[in-house]
Design goal:
The complex is a heterodimer of chains A (156) and B (499). By secondary structure, chain A is an all-alpha fold. Chain A is built from six helices and no strands. Classes of the chains: A mainly alpha (156), B mainly alpha (499). Chains A and B meet through helix 1, helix 2, helix 3, helix 4 and helix 5 of A and helix 8, helix 9, helix 16, helix 17 and helix 18 of B.
């Protein structure tokens, strides 16, 4: 779990610029598939010119960064951080059932994972808050939420 | 003068006044909560302003900006935790004053300095924005392109991060702005046949992700942080002696803050640091700084609040954000179909002046709130992290969805949130990414128009005087810090010292 070791520091120093360069190279490659406009329609620059210019800049700056400004991990990644990201993943899966079930479950689970043990507090974030938010936005802002197990009960 | 008064008349609308009071109270709560700041607050609120009239929507965002910037001082003084980074220097003298039982005096000084700084900067905004806009009226696409490049070059010093990494983040933001249908040629770029991407990546979900959700993930490592709350005596206004001691500092810092705010991309944090340092440099008792000097609070708070008005000058007059929060406000203007720039002061002058007056109103409003409600607002820091951040997540998701009522925007916000967290982890600031995304489209459009105008001879841009000035300023902004560092290292006395 500890990403702060010397080995990972060395890895990150090269991995981040490399990832950026790879991203820019792929983006330049994809830009070769863009339609080319005839001179009369191209309005100054071809559609692929500007993205390529920016990708070139990203590559140049990434090389500068690798040599002169090595990337370092700023803070220790805690167990809670991994847990939080995993809960975001769980939220994405639960959204397929219902957005508000997913929001309530995520909020209660996150609160629990971060150390909250009081039933009332968990109930507040897991039940009361999603219901309040739903009605504020549905009735107040006329937002129509995606249909799901719970929202179908309201929308009919 | 008609727009001047018409703008004031807009404040006669009770609905707008009510909204401004609610937004100011909300801004104070946001600013007082460590971890949340004006930029996050404005980004989270942006989708909900879309159903409102433009004046109400932008006034709310500016109210959040002004009041949250001030409110960072409440927690800086009472719990030694700046609510916003702009109040970091307020901790240095505010907390020592609170420890010796002068929390009320410290808060009083902070609120009065903030109000004076904020009000003065709004007056500067009222006078200078139309003048700057008039000067920019003669700008053609090449000048606008050079100006946008200059605005982006100021990203090097944003957030106190590394200049190279800030530029990379800005470039990635500009690249993301190229996704979608090219406005000049209607060619689809990086859309991978996903219809949601045809109109590009929306900057509102990205902002909600990089400012809101990434902060939530970052907070996971700070859930066990302990904060000490100072018991505060009743708020009392600073004495006449206090005013006599700090009035010069307040005026000086207000000037500094307004000027720093006007510079593209520089915001309240830089202003407060310079304001504090200058207050110390000009003080007769510099040894008191860091131990509870009233000038320290006044210098920092007047500067950070005056930067809010200053930051709105380039935002409204040129369409270049003066600070991270101004970038969110700029996004708000764009999603409401408003075009910041010189035409705003001719075609939408009433709107522009309504915004100025509402900012003035908000600055006066938080004087009252700060003096009589600071004790109450300090209590919001008692909201447990375990309840606050899950709620922020819910508002982030619903906010991202509400914009176009599309789950695709929710996925964009979540991806942007995780990406933003990784950026923070590796020492990149997320602010340049957001500014790059907003300005990227304009930059490309202006480059294309310039190329048409100059018959594809781009080097002719340098022969145009205004462009040349902006390009020179860009070079100075990019290479100036490097040159200064080099000169400092090679000064004869530093060589002797090192040997």
């Amino acid at each position: 779990m500890n990403l702060h070791s010397e080995k990972s520091e060395r890895l990150v120093r090269w991995l981040v610029p490399l990832a950026l360069i790879l991203f820019a190279v792929v983006a330049i490659y994809i830009s070769t598939t863009f339609k080319k406009m005839p001179p009369i329609l191209k309005r100054g620059i071809q559609p692929s010119d500007f993205p390529r210019l920016i990708c070139g800049l990203i590559i140049f700056l990434s090389l500068l960064m690798a040599w002169f400004d090595p990337v370092k991990i700023q803070e220790r990644v805690s167990r809670q951080t991994f847990l939080t990201v995993a809960l975001v993943g769980m939220f994405v899966l639960l959204v397929q059932v219902d957005l508000f079930i997913a929001l309530g479950a995520f909020a209660a689970a996150l609160s629990f994972a971060w150390g909250e043990r009081r039933i009332m507090a968990l109930g507040l974030v897991g039940l009361v808050m999603p219901v309040v938010i739903f009605f504020i936005f549905d009735l107040g802002f006329r937002v129509r939420f995606p249909r799901g197990l719970l929202t179908n009960m309201w929308y009919g | 003068m008609a727009p001047f008064w018409a703008g004031l008349m807009a404040l006669g609308d009770p609905y707008l006044i009510l909204l401004l009071i609610c937004a100011t109270l909300g801004g104070v709560v946001i600013g007082a909560l460590p971890g949340l700041n004006a930029t996050t607050g404005a980004a989270l609120l942006l989708p909900f302003t879309l159903t409102m009239e433009p004046v109400a929507a932008i006034s709310i965002l500016t109210a959040i900006y002004c009041s949250a910037t001030f409110a960072g001082a409440i927690t800086a003084i009472l719990i030694n935790t700046p609510g916003t980074s702009a109040s970091a220097t307020t901790c240095l003298d505010g907390y020592p004053m609170a420890i010796r039982g002068e929390a009320g005096r410290a808060l009083g000084l902070a609120v009065v300095s903030s109000t004076i700084g904020g009000v003065l900067s709004v007056f500067v905004l009222m006078l200078s924005a139309p003048l700057l806009a008039r000067a920019a009226y003669s700008f053609a696409p090449p000048e606008y392109f050079a100006l946008t490049v200059f605005g982006l070059s100021m990203l090097v010093s944003i957030g106190g991060g590394s200049p190279i990494r800030n530029l990379i983040a800005g470039a990635v933001g500009i690249f993301l702005a190229t996704v979608g249908t090219d406005l000049l040629t209607s060619v689809k770029r990086y859309t991978f046949d996903v219809p949601h991407l045809y109109e590009g990546i929306g900057f509102v979900p990205v902002m909600i992700g990089v400012f809101g959700i990434s902060e939530l993930i970052a907070q996971a490592t700070r859930i066990h942080d302990k904060r000490e709350t100072i018991t505060m005596n009743a708020i009392k206004l600073p004495s006449r002696e206090d005013y006599r001691r700090v009035w010069k500092t307040i005026l000086r810092s207000s000037g500094i803050g307004t000027f720093i705010g006007i510079l593209p991309a520089e915001g309240a944090t830089v202003a407060s640091m310079i304001g504090y340092n200058e207050a110390k440099r000009w003080s007769k008792n510099p040894e008191e700084f860091g131990k509870g000097a009233p000038e320290g609070i006044a210098g920092s708070e007047a500067a950070n609040n005056s930067a809010t008005g200053g930051a709105m000058v380039p935002t409204l007059a040129l369409g270049i954000p003066g600070s991270p929060t101004a970038a969110v406000i700029l996004a708000g203007l764009l999603v409401h179909g408003l075009r910041p720039g010189p035409t705003m002061f001719t075609e939408q002058a009433n709107f522009a002046f309504a915004i100025f007056w509402s900012m003035l109103f908000v600055n006066l409003l938080f004087l009252v709130i700060g003096l009589y409600g600071a004790k109450l607002f300090a209590r919001v820091t008692l909201i447990p992290t375990q309840i606050l951040w899950p709620s922020v997540f819910m508002f982030s998701v619903v906010g991202a969805y509400a914009l176009d009522q599309s789950m695709f925007d929710v996925w964009v916000a979540l991806i942007a949130g995780v990406f933003g967290y990784l950026m923070r982890l590796f020492g990149f600031s997320v602010v340049p990414l957001a500014i790059g995304l907003i300005l990227g489209g304009m930059l490309e459009q202006r480059l294309g128009q310039s190329m048409v105008m100059l018959d594809e001879q781009w080097w002719l841009m340098v022969t145009r005087p205004i462009c040349a000035v902006f390009f020179a300023a860009t070079a100075l902004a990019l290479f100036g810090p490097l040159c200064v560092g080099y000169l400092k290292r090679n000064r004869p006395d530093s060589n002797e010292a090192s040997s």
